[in-house]
Write a structure and sequence with these properties.
By secondary structure, the chain is α+β, with helices and mostly antiparallel strands. The chain has two domains: about 1-55; about 65-225, no CATH class. It is about 30% helix and about 35% strand. Strands 5, 6, 7, 8, 9, 10, 11, 12, 13 and 14 form a ten-stranded mixed beta sheet that branches. The chain has a two-stranded antiparallel ribbon with strand order 1-2. A two-stranded antiparallel sheet has the order 3-4. Strand 12 (about 185-190) and strand 13 form a beta hairpin. The chain is rod-shaped and about 120 Å long.
Length: about 230
């Protein structure tokens, strides 16, 4: 009887290490499987395309693009080079003029910093645009006409002679702003025989102070460039 109990105890003791050994191998297997999964996920993420994981900032507008959205007129001058005239974003359009054998009705774009005054009757039509001491006048009334002569031109009868000029590209013609005293400017329009006054929308003159501000003159030129018939 004692021998049977001893044998049974010995058999039980011999089976216990075997079960522990089996559990240990299962644990090791699970750990290895977990490590393989972690490594696999890491490698998969590393091999993905960088374009899918990288946030790309949208391109910012450049200075050139910003400037391109702004309305501007380029005035070419043989004597003064190139002048850029910016049109005020809050400018307004004013229509004036009468239709007859000499002149046409017109529309001009006026920056908000300028004040306009329009007077008209059956015989004449005058638009005066003012900012401080700077006055631009477009007048349709009876008056003389003639050619405009500049440095290098052969003097002509009934011509106005100017020391210098600035060329202005308009919507329907080419213009020149000329002066002999740097205080009063006359705008002449290109005709088939050369530049002449008055223009097809009237007599156009500038009255400005001595040593006029070039930026303000450029604004006045911009208004001439904006004229439409």
């Amino acid at each position: 009887m004692a021998d049977n109990q001893g044998n049974q105890q010995t058999a039980d003791n011999s089976q216990r290490p075997t079960r522990k050994g089996v559990n240990l191998w299962k644990l090791i297997s699970l750990v290895l499987i977990a490590l393989l999964l972690v490594v696999g996920v890491y490698e998969l993420g590393k091999n993905q395309s960088p374009s899918k994981n990288t946030f790309v900032m949208p391109p910012q507008p450049t200075v050139a693009q910003d400037q391109a959205t702004n309305s501007s007129t380029i005035i070419l001058s043989p004597t003064s080079g190139v002048t850029v005239v910016s049109t005020n974003a809050t400018s307004k359009k004013v229509s004036a003029g009468i239709k007859n054998q000499l002149f046409s009705p017109y529309t001009v774009t006026i920056p908000s910093s300028w004040v306009d005054d329009h007077t008209a009757n059956t015989a004449s039509d005058t638009l005066t645009i003012t900012k401080g001491q700077y006055v631009l006048t477009i007048s349709q009334a009876a008056g003389g006409a003639g050619s405009c002569d500049y440095q290098g031109d052969t003097p002509e009868p009934m011509a106005q002679v100017f020391n210098n000029f600035v060329g202005i590209t308009g919507t329907f013609s080419q213009f020149r702003r000329g002066t002999a005293d740097n205080k009063t400017y006359t705008v002449c329009e290109q005709k088939s025989t050369g530049f002449a006054f008055p223009t097809s929308v009237g007599y156009i003159t500038y009255n400005v102070p001595v040593q006029a501000d070039q930026a303000t003159l450029a604004e006045m030129d911009g208004m001439i460039a904006s004229l439409t018939k």
